[in-house]
Design brief:
globular; alpha+beta; about 45% strand; two-stranded antiparallel ribbon
Amino acid sequence: MQITDVRVRKVTSQGKMKAKIDITIDNAFVIHDVKVIETDKGTFIAMPSKKLPNGDYKDVAHPINTETREMLQKAVLDKYNEAEDAE
């Protein structure tokens, strides 16, 4: 699996969410609305989710192992940091 494109859409509101990201995998599959979240403990990604009737949230798409999650997070945060540096 190869991440072939990462597109950053910055969020201008004041809050923990700093950007929404679209990730293209193998020029064949896209995941929209991955969120970049900044907290006191660091910056991380949150996968797209939907709100359930009971108020909980469930991921719509997500990696099923640590290696894939780390690969996605690195690609997203690298591209996000590039966009930050370009400003």
